[in-house]
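Lecture notes, unit on protein representations.

Consider one protein chain, 163 amino acids long.
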Amino acid sequence: MSHGIRRILCCVGLKIDCNPVLAQAVGLAVATGAELEVLHAVKSLSDDVVNTLRVNIPDREILETLREQRLKEASEVLDAKIETFWAGHPELRDAFGAREMKRSVLEGYPAVVITDYAHRSGSDMIVMAANKRSFSATYAGKITKGVIKRSHVPVVVVPPRRD
């Protein structure tokens, strides 16, 4: 019995070049016919920062507005990165066709957010960056290691570019 790949979760950071990760995920989605969703996990503010904000901004509506603004800005950056990716890879855009690429931005500890979301959404595979600039110390960064440790589905780790 073979287990097909029907849904791929591509996880990207916004501070690094996400083109290699997107290219790998799109290529896998094209090859398998799988749905593709791109997720960015916004790291939660530290407890110290949250407590400082609560002390200095007692209005809970303003605090919630600030939180929503962080997520909205991250979503806008994610959309821009994806559009830039498509513009630079017309061959992948053509191969992917008119299919929809769902996009999500969630807040929390990234490794937990990614694995929980993959489980809830029924993802069959996670694609993400190694998040290390070189292979000298360890292959994967802290978030990638956390996803590998928690995940119940295969995790494809895309190495950094060697320019």
